[in-house]
Amino acid sequence: MKFIKRLLIFAIICILLGVGTIFGFYVYVKPELPDVATLKDVELQTPMQVYSADGKLISQFGEKRRIPVTYNDIPKDLIDALIATEDSRFYDHPGIDPIGITRAAIVVAMSGSAKQGASTITQQLARNFFLSNEKKIMRKIKEIFIAIHIEQLLTKQEIMELYVNKIFLGYRSYGFGAASRVYFGKDLKDLTLSELATLAGMPKAPSTMNPIYSVERATHRRNVVLKRMLDEGYITRSEYEQARNEPIVSRYHGAEIELNAPYMAEMARAWAVEQYGEDVYESGMKVYTTLDSRLQNAAEKAAINNLLSYDERHGYRGAVETLWKDGNEPWDAEKIAKHLKQQPTYGELNPAVVIKVDAKTAEVELQSGETATLPWDGMKWARRYKTDIRQGTAPKQAADILAVGEQIWVRKVDDAWHLSQVPDANTAMVAMLPENGAIKALVGGFNFVHSKFNRATQSVRQVGSAIKPFIYSAALDQGITLATLINDAPINKWDSSQGTAWRPKNSPPTYIGPTRARIGLATSKNVMAVRVLRKVGLDETIDFLTRFGFKHEELPRSETLALGAGSLTPMQVAQGFSVFANGGYYLKPYFISKVEDPFGALVYTEHPQVICRENCDNNVSKLDSENLKEEENLLEQTAEMENEPQFAPQVISEQNAFLTREMLEANIWGGGEWRQGTGWNGTGWRAQKPLNRRDIGGKTGTTNDSKDAWYSGFAPGLVATVWVGFDDHSRELGKTSRNANLDNAQISGAEAGAKTAQPAWIGFMVDALVDVPEQRKMVPSDIVKVRIDRDTGLLTRKNDASSMFEYFERGTEPTDYVSSAASSGNIYESEGEELF
């Protein structure tokens, strides 16, 4: 009896000592324990996502992939699997499981190593949120106390929801919602029992027990989970057998990008970091750009197809690599497949290896492991590249182009595979709404993986003749009309400081004498542009051009400005052309429309400038805008309007914009009557048949030696600019001879804006305008239409082919009739003349 009494006293003492020890530990670590109440309002770290204006996912940024799910959206089989495997008494314990701890301690005592864990789901949650994974006794003690606090604060459902969303499961996936996407490419609710069990088995060792790292280890672990579910009565024997026999089919699934716009995604990322700091990567914010998915797809297709077309007509530069030569032992399919998996893909371009060459076909093995046939129509373009201005003879058989063992590039055209190559040249395209400055499509280069340099916004290139509309607009501002005669004749200007003469030439070098301004701009006459510049004045012209957002330092103080010596980005050119399209208003381009937090609440919204044409309380008057001398003055005023709706400044008159558009429309449609011998075409005539509408206009641009090719133009509610050139500024776009294997539709001769850039603009507009009805011409007030003589630009009483109707701003129309025209009515260059 005394023994029992002593034993009881000893037990009480032990209990008191234990409680005291626990209390002592608690007092000791209490200052270091986190406030678990933060779990009530926890914001799970989710990646920032970038969307188009119509809700298509463009990209996501952040180290952690997470797709939060609510408790009600967690499949019951997943909850059962986690409880059966990780914490069978989850609903019964207060955060720690004494039975599990005792069992684990016994195992440690008997085996000398920790073969069995004792952490409950609540303890794992505590560790994931507040502690590290270091194996120290003090960390374990803290984990226990935190788990108990969590159980006092949260319900079991709330604990399970946090656990399911927080835990790391490999390949940057955090939470089971993200893991289901990463490993199986499906939503959590769509997974099978086998797939759910696979995921439920991964918390033990997510980096090595996932099915991408090792299918064998993942299968073994899944079977353990299924067996525990069977033993706990969560599934039946038949469900167990069916799930156990199901093979695990898994591969890495990246974010499901719905729209290819990587250059815009990078612009949005940089903007978000500047606005919100580096924490934005884990904020879960949804950044909506201004892109229109349909227009972006159209721009991407048009720009890249045009670039590949340019590259291919200059010849085939040969295989990427020769893996084995004829006569050597060929690689087997497994070795080829392993090699191809290590090669990149660039958009439509896929790596392939030639395994057979016949008379006019070739067989290739693709990166997917499939075998494809290249038809003759898909490779007959591939004459040898020699230089940028010389190509070899047209091939006659497949062996003239390809050899077995070569690694090449192929792309799918319609339903057939074609031989291709990574282009040496590059391209950019920008499309924007002229009414508010929203960027609707942007292509920054051939491929973002290949080169991350954004040529649409960062590449400052000479614009060539694309500058001429702005110079003619300056002349209209000074009183020149569309009917003013300008002498299309050679210019000789002696430079005494250099001891040389400057002799700008037309391209081609043909001259027709006195010519109306409309024709001069539409046909891109260089010497006429120089004379227009002289009439306005060099300094006055530069000042005028800054109204369009161009910077002084980008515009050389030289008459070469008239020929496009100024350097701008494609974005700036599109912005400038928008002024003509919208009636004379400067609008700063923007590309972010709004930002939402993870719960859909609005965090930021853009307030773009708006155009007000009547009864406006405009903060920037027309007079002030027209008298701006530096681009910085305009930007300073527009910057003050950034966060609230403000009126856009009018920088040229509505009449000036209309008359400039008339000349740009003539660039495509020309003028006169072909049947009566007065017809003529502008340099953009190639757009006539594909688009077949009169409410479009534009301007070609080609720099000296054809190093840069441009086309910029407008259509109803849209402005687009295309650039093509080499990143190496010294390299010319060259020229091509005709390929005997191709039809008459092929492009040949010297590369220029009309041949090299305009096809992309046309291709884009064909898709962009498919549902846009043709618009009637809207003539502003104070614009009059009078009949003039085609040759002199003066009034005429004739009603035949020698006459035409022309638009004038009221007060600038001619007053003399051609019958009484004096010789001074024609503007010729005379000795000592500086303006014309």
From TrEMBL:
Keywords: Antibiotic resistance, Carboxypeptidase, Cell inner membrane, Cell membrane, Cell shape, Cell wall biogenesis/degradation, Glycosyltransferase, Hydrolase, Membrane, Multifunctional enzyme, Peptidoglycan synthesis, Protease, Signal-anchor, Transferase, Transmembrane, Transmembrane helix. One of its GO terms (biological process) is response to antibiotic. Cell wall formation. Synthesis of cross-linked peptidoglycan from the lipid intermediates. The enzyme has a penicillin-insensitive transglycosylase N-terminal domain (formation of linear glycan strands) and a penicillin-sensitive transpeptidase C-terminal domain (cross-linking of the peptide subunits). This is Penicillin-binding protein 1A. In the N-terminal section; belongs to the glycosyltransferase 51 family. The lineage of its organism: Bacteria, Pseudomonadati, Pseudomonadota, Gammaproteobacteria, Vibrionales. It is a single-pass type II membrane protein. It comes from Grimontia marina. GO terms for molecular function: penicillin binding; peptidoglycan glycosyltransferase activity; serine-type D-Ala-D-Ala carboxypeptidase activity.
